[in-house]
Amino acid sequence: MRIVQKPFGEINGQNVDAYTLINDQNIEITCLNYGCVITKIVTPNRDGNYENIVLGFNNMEDYEKHSPYFGAVVGRVSGRIKGGQFELDGQSFELEMNDNGNHLHGGSKGFSHVLWDAVILKNEKEVGIQFSYTSPDGEEGYPGTVQVTITYLLNNDNEFLIHYQANSDKTTLLNLTNHTYFNLSGDLKRDALHHVLKIDSNQFVELNEQLLPTGELLDVTDTVFDFREGREIEEGVISNHPQNQLVGQGYDHSFLLNSHHNGEITMWDEESGRKLVVETDEVSVVLYTGNQLQEDLPVYGVKSKKYLGLCLETQGLPDAIHHPHFPSYVLEKDQLFSSLTKYTFLVD
């Protein structure tokens, strides 16, 4: 196993480096110290051809100007916060409203648009990068100075682990995720519409016209939101279900997970034979099928389009601060936040 470090570009006069983690099966994962962005994941298909299975850019300028959070860590709070405001311990806080009057993905800066400190990790069992960032009190309007550590690890079982850790000197909100867009066809040969997805979930979060939770958890039974036995993504894209239509013909929904670290999320591409298993501590996964992807962005020599990739964002339920019956993502003062998501790359 080894790690290759190379210059990738600059932002605000500071160097951005790319780190490629390589295991003994030649699985490769490349990430940046900018936003902890995962730029490439290279895995074999059933014929042994190694190809990239995520969306990204070849240069720093495109990430800075065009990226719809490709591969980035999102925070302090992923998803939307209604009205860009919340109350905590009797005090009101105002956040940037960067999404039609609401706060999205931690604001226009957030964790996804900053440089992180990076330390290379290597032992006999795994290679990785430990990223760290200090978010000062008041950044993007949030209370508390938050120390965040995010560790990427790749082992020889073809498992990629993301370990999120954080603590704050004041009670605050924290809901972290990784926003990688997957496409298992390899080198973006096809869109993701015929990927088959299986999620161990009985309920999903109903959204309103602003893509905010109504507070209702809907039963997936007898709908295209039932992924318990697996279904093609295209079924939701062509569906006349009001929730599919609301988000631009597809999915942009949180699914409440029934189980954890038990193969609860599995996606595969029949043609390539690639399979991805996602397991997590988090209460839910947001399935986003790229319904709003901008057309014609230069994504590794392919022009971007709707459904070119899809996200499986493990996280807390969206806007939980305004829905007391949702699991809380309040981080208490001096409390340690810790969460683990594991991605396993397989071939059928």
UniProtKB/TrEMBL annotation:
Keywords: Carbohydrate metabolism, Isomerase. It comes from the Bacteria. PROSITE patterns: ALDOSE_1_EPIMERASE. Coiled coil: none annotated. It holds the Pfam family Aldose_epim. Signal peptide: none annotated. Pathway: Carbohydrate metabolism; hexose metabolism. This is Aldose 1-epimerase.
